Design the sequence.
């Protein structure tokens, strides 16, 4: 795109027309204001007439607490929703309304209301989750509203009082009949229980105190004890047999001390003989009277010990077998007796269960009889007024203020709506009478003519995008344009590193150290000297580059860096795709333009901006054609260049421990 200066034209012609002179109309005479006021006043007038023409409506209310109709001495549930709904229908019923209208006409002769009007004025609703009933009446006559509700309450209370009196007599009669029936049933139950006891020999009401169950319990306890003794005897026999099988000494308890003495004497003689064997020969000892008796004494002791062990083994084994056999026979005998007694015990258990059922039935009848007696005594001795089923929480009062309409609030709404209607009228008028805009010539001021249709994009284009035709020429040589790749900021690099995995971070670190994709793909573990934080590059442009400590630590985590060499090496295309995936995952703008060359280009710009001589670039980043080196002159500062040893070769993004 060509770079042009803003279009300014100098005009010396004095015949240009002068700007027109405007004579503005006062705002209160403008067309828009007139339309607005006409719509506003019309809407406000109509709204206010409608608002204040509505009659005032008053409301009077009362609250009742009602409970369900139960027996005279019983209390209903805390909240009976069904009962409250029924009472609501009763209060609006025809019978109560007729009586209410009759009493109201007698107290207020001027009343002109009928049943239909009263039903329309009254509202009866229940309070959620309670036994409260709210009664309200609305109408334009406040003096009749409270009288209507209070009269209805009085009629309702009289009706409920009559129901309570009838309920008391009915409940008393029902309780006397119940007591008579219970007397007959209790007597019959007692006779049946006594007859059952005599028939089945049940002497005690306690189950375990009867003979059959007592004997069964004793046999069960004896069987348990005998079974325990059998297990112990069997364990003793098994222990003796196992000891004999292992060759251990098994003797009766009374012979254990004698056997221990013989074994001790044998041990002493064996030790003494071993001591003499070390000092003399057996032939010598056979010639000495005080020594030759030792071998004979040892043989005698061994023979005595062997006889004692055999004798003790037989005695102990026989005793264990006899004890086990006796315990086993005892268990068998007790089990036989228990089996014989089980049938008798089972029959007794069945009969005793029936006995308990009869006893429980009798106890239940007696408990019901006592409760019924208590209820009858309470009804006959207590006043029914102590069990109110309707309570007046609050009576109706004469209303002083209307509940609706809200004239002040509605007036504000009418005025606000009138303002909106006036604005709407102005908008409609402007919309219907809108004229297309006329084209206006450019404005001429002091001989300067300003054009309107100037391409702003051309004015905003950066100087670095100038066409090569407008660049100064040096003989026959044309300066090279800047590189085509974009430069990534530090924030973009950090975002890119954070969005990839360890393989991607290793690759980005190598690209920000000056390697190409081909050089990165050709690396193996022999190229890394992580102790000195260096990498030796082989190939067409061999060199040694220095890397940051965080990047070296990332490579040191793996036994054979880089990651893409194990288990199967990735190709150059795969490594390039890894950078593209990282750019997409990072969500960077124009991510399709971010690749490996973009990252390497960013590193080269970082070196050049420090003042590195362009001819020094191949020492750090590999082969670069002279024309490509020249393209980076736009980033070189206007000062003499430095060598590679005079600048910082590690990019700042490589020193962030958080990413590596």
Sequence:
């Amino acid at each position: 795109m060509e770079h042009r200066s803003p279009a300014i034209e100098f005009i010396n012609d004095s015949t240009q027309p002068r700007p027109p002179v405007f004579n503005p109309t006062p705002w209160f005479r403008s067309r828009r204001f007139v339309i607005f006021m006409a719509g506003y006043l019309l809407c406000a007038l109509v709204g206010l007439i409608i608002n204040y023409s509505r009659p005032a409506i008053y409301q009077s209310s009362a609250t009742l607490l009602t409970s369900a109709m139960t027996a005279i001495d019983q209390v209903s549930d805390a909240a009976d929703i069904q009962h409250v709904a029924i009472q609501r229908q009763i209060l609006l019923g025809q019978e109560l309304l007729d009586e209410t209208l009759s009493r109201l006409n007698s107290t207020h002769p001027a009343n002109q209301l009928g049943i239909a009007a009263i039903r329309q004025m009254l509202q009866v609703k229940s309070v959620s989750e309670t036994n409260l009933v709210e009664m309200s009446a609305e109408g334009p006559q406040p003096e009749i509203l409270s009288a209507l509700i209070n009269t209805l309450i009085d009629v309702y209370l009289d009706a409920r009082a009559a129901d309570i009196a009838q309920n008391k007599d009915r409940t008393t009669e029902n309780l006397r009949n119940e007591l008579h029936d219970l007397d007959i049933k209790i007597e019959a139950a007692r006779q049946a229980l006594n007859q059952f006891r005599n028939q089945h020999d049940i002497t005690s009401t306690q189950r375990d105190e009867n003979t059959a169950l007592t004997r069964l319990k004793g046999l069960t306890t004896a069987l348990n004890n005998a079974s325990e003794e059998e297990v112990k005897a069997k364990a003793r026999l098994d222990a003796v047999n196992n000891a004999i099988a292992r060759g251990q000494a098994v003797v009766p308890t009374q012979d254990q001390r004698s056997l221990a003495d013989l074994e001790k004497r044998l041990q002493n003689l064996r030790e003494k003989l071993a001591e003499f064997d070390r000092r003399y020969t057996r032939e010598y000892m056979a010639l000495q009277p005080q020594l030759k008796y030792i071998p004979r004494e040892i043989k005698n002791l061994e023979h005595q010990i062997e006889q004692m062990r055999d004798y003790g083994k037989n005695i102990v084994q026989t005793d264990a077998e006899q004890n086990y056999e006796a315990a086993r026979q005892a268990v068998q005998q007790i089990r036989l007796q228990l089996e014989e007694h089980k049938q008798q015990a089972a029959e007794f258990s069945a009969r005793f269960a029936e006995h308990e059922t009869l006893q429980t039935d009798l106890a239940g009848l007696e408990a019901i009889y006592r409760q019924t007696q208590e209820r009858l005594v309470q009804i006959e001795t207590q006043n029914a007024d102590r069990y109110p089923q309707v309570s007046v929480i609050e009576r109706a009062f004469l209303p002083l203020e209307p509940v609706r309409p809200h004239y002040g609030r509605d007036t504000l709404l009418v005025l606000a709506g009138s303002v909106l209607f006036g604005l709407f009228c102005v908008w409609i008028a402007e919309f219907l009478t809108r004229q297309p805009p006329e084209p206006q010539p450019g404005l001429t001021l002091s001989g300067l003519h300003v054009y309107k249709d100037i391409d702003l994009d051309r004015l905003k284009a950066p100087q670095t995008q100038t066409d090569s035709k407008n660049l100064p020429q040096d003989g026959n040589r044309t300066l090279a344009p800047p590189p085509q790749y974009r430069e990534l900021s530090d924030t973009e690099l950090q975002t890119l590193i954070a969005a990839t995995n360890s393989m991607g971070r290793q690759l980005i670190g190598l690209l920000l150290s000056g390697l190409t994709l081909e050089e990165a793909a050709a690396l193996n573990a022999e190229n890394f000297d992580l102790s000195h934080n260096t990498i030796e590059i082989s190939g067409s442009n061999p060199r040694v580059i220095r890397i940051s400590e965080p990047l070296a630590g990332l490579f040191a985590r793996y036994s054979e860096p880089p990651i893409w060499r194990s288990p199967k090496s990735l190709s150059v295309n795969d490594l390039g795709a890894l950078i593209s995936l990282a750019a997409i995952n990072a969500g960077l703008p124009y991510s399709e333009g971010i690749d490996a060359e973009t990252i390497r280009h960013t590193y080269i710009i970082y070196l050049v901006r420090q003042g590195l001589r362009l001819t020094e670039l191949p020492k750090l980043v590999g082969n670069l054609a002279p024309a490509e080196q020249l393209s980076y002159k736009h980033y070189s500062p206007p000062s003499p260049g430095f060598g590679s040893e005079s600048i910082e070769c590690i990019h700042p993004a490589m020193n962030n421990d958080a990413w590596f």
